[in-house]
Amino acid sequence: MALEILELHHHGVCMHPSLTEPMREFYEGVLGLSSDAGRPRIPGIPGHFMDVPGDTQIHLLGKEGPSMYAQGPGRDPVDTHVALAVADVAGAERELLRLKVDYWKQSSVAAPQLMQLFFRDPAGNLIELHQASHCRCKRSDRERAA
């Protein structure tokens, strides 16, 4: 049995911290996206969460070298990644164990109550799994909570 992915939540784009403001300006001015004003402050990680039509986000994440959240070489949740939602993150973890996928888990740097699972695909791309409806990625969830 494979993991059951419910939706794409965000795509995290890593850059040098000095580029986070020019990137926000580009994503707003050229792509017409708006910045999520409620993005939590993430110590050591400047950036912006850009709302994309279709209820997803692009996370602009500034860092230089490994972040303070890295759990060793190749295990930095602030690297460029794609984040996918699952219905049950504990069940997804059990499935990763069963499939013998090398992964690590940690609390979200943006929302400590959110447990995340990280692993790499065969090409080395970083994938994040987290529980659906437990993050700021979906504008519709934020609007319902307000």
Automatic annotation (TrEMBL):
PROSITE patterns listed in its UniProt record: VOC
Domain VOC, first and last residues per copy: 7-132
InterPro entries membership: Glyas_Bleomycin-R_OHBP_Dase, Glyas_Fos-R_dOase_dom, VOC_core
A Pfam family hit: Glyoxalase
UniProt-recorded name of the protein: VOC family protein
Organism for this UniProt entry: Archangium lansingense
